[in-house]
Design brief:
By secondary structure, this protein is α+β, with helices and mostly antiparallel strands. It has one domain. It is about 65% helix and about 15% strand. The chain has three helices and two strands; from the N terminus they run H-H-E-E-H. It has a two-stranded antiparallel ribbon with strand order 1-2. The radius of gyration is 22 Å and the shape is flat.
Length: about 90
């Protein structure tokens, strides 16, 4: 038997790519952001009023932006697909 590895076998170091590095940097930045924004803020919307940590308010609005972006892109692709089929 030989000690040769199959052509598709990778070392662990080969799997660390650009995406993982970017993800790690974003994660570190997020942790720093959270620890620097622990104070509570008052959020008022219509007749409701809540007190949340500032980092949570920012993360909620970021998540809403991501969801709205996905919906917008999904609707745009759907419209384009229906136009192309006509």
């Amino acid at each position: 038997m030989t000690d040769e590895k199959p052509a598709n076998a990778h070392k662990f170091n080969d799997k660390i790519g650009f995406g993982m590095i970017v993800s790690a940097v974003i994660l570190v930045a997020l942790v720093i952001f959270i620890f620097q924004n622990l104070e509570e803020v008052e959020v008022e919307f219509l007749f409701l009023s809540f007190a949340f940590p500032l980092w949570l308010v920012a993360v909620i609005f970021l998540a809403l932006g991501v969801v709205l972006g996905w919906i917008w892109r999904w609707m745009s692709r759907r419209r384009k697909k229906s136009r192309d089929q006509s």
